[in-house]
Amino acid sequence: MAVTTVSRASTASSAVDQVKRDVSAVTRLLEAEGILDYSGHVSTRIPGRDVFVIQIGSASRAEVEPASMLVCDYDGKVLEGDGAPPVELPIHTEILKARPDVQSVLHSHMELAIAFTMMEGVKLVPMRARASRWKSGIPTDPDPSHIKLKEQGQALAKSLGPHHALLMRAHGLCLVAESVRALLVDAVHFKENATAQMQALQAGAKPMPLTDAEIAQIEKMEIRDWHIKKLWNYYTRKATKRGILPGEWNLVPSNEMMERD
Ligand SMILES: [Zn+2]
Hints:
The protein is α+β, with helices and mostly antiparallel strands. Helices cover 41% and strands 13% of the residues.
């Protein structure tokens, strides 16, 4: 009986360690890709518990590690870890409460995303194939200030509604996904798509967003799980080689894991 208890406890703790490692890695990767900088943050739920992981607010996004991670409940109370969460914690608590389908939330001050909240008559739309992810729309929350209050977080979650991306007027963006690894992939593609639309605008052309028929065709050919695995393999390998991710975190998938079904 004692053996079972120990084994259950160690399985639970290794699951928490894995979540902390993944959030640390995704934060470093997003910083390396210019999507996070001195601010912005990633949160992810811990499976089977009503809690989530988020970094200590003051920890450098380029150097976060599992020890920089906090476990918080949905009231924003720190349950594990030594430090204060980011001041914009209500972004995460309120979106995670409002969206049971979401496992992971990114808040970033991506310049390109902000630009699309400051151009009259211009809306960010799906342009590139991978942006079919945002076919339901990319709304904008009107509050340009820091989201420090629960009420602001609730309003933000309402603006997000059922969508996967939200712009924040003159401030930044939020992305939501089914896992923290999927969130990394979405963030990379969100930036690519915003870049493509900006390039079309800067060329003086009228952007041609994907049509519904084109989106349907793209989705017919899409295997999201495989694509996430492929990009995770690419980014973790590249970053490990460059010393951005410690090799001992063991994040690079094995060759076996990369075999296609
Ligand atoms: Zn912010």
